[in-house]
Amino acid sequence: MGRKPAKATTTKDNRERQPFWVKDNNGPKVLLDERAMAIFQPDVLIESQYLATQTRRVHLDAERVLMFAVLRDAVSCFQDTVGANCKRKQIMHQDAEAWILDKDRSHLFSFDTVCEILGLDPEYMRAGLLRWKAAALGSRPVKARDQAVAG
């Protein structure tokens, strides 16, 4: 038993259910061309968006992450406790400063070794931190500066 072929009806309801590429074949050709060319429109990016996709993300291995954390902690202790009155904070500052000023390269986690492995110039970092300390102590009131020098 064969089935009868279905009659193709083109009622308004049936046309709305058809896929978009079948709909409105009799309409203006310009709209169809515009829709087709819309996929070839250039993407508009600002410079920072483009550079964000092009910059290289440096993935550090675990040892470098640890070395960076040590350097960051030392610089933080050095800067945060520069003019402290508390004995404990003064000792933290002195320890950090001693580590920064020590030029011994025999230890894996010495200041010079850590800076070089991270791609930083240790002498430049050292000089910059000492300049920062001089500026920070120079901007303090005279009375507090005299107490720090005397103590």
Write the layout of secondary structure elements.
Elements: H1 12-17, H2 29-37, H3 47-54, H4 62-80, H5 87-101, H6 111-117, H7 122-138, H8 142-150
Explain what the structure shows.
This protein is an all-alpha fold. It has a domain at 62-150. Helix content is 60%, strand content 0%. α4 packs across α5 and α4 (62-80) crosses α6.
* SSE class: mainly alpha
Number of strands: 0
Question: What's the end-to-end separation, in Å?
Answer: 110 Å
Radius of gyration (CA) equals: 35 Å
Please report the number of helical segments. 8
Residue runs with pLDDT of under 50 for 5 or more positions: none
Helix content: 55-70%
Name a few traits of the molecule:
single chain; 151 residues; mainly alpha; 8 helices; 0% strand
Quick synopsis:
This protein has a domain at 62-150.
